[in-house]
Amino acid sequence: MKEQLEQVRAWAQDKIAAGQEPPWAWYQYMKLRETLDAILAGIDATTTESSPQSESHGETHLRLVGATDPQDKSQRRPAGLPLQPPM
Fold first, then answer.
1. What is the C-alpha to C-alpha distance for residues 10 and 29, in angstroms, rounded to an integer?
2. Of 38, 44, 54, 68, which residue is least crowded by CB atoms under 10 Å?
């Protein structure tokens, strides 16, 4: 995949360097080359084989842990007191 992208980038660069394309096509070749540069840089930046996340961690599983603090931290109004709506 990376090799194919590099070939397309070289082709676009050759079209730009030739200088025989109309302005609208030249602009499209430039956008293509810039996009391929970004994609190739992203491919180089992300390596799945050396990434610590891709290493096998044996038997790692999620575990359920009980709650330590209440989720509802709002103060409750004592029953029987009238509620005053905002004006």
1. 11
2. 68
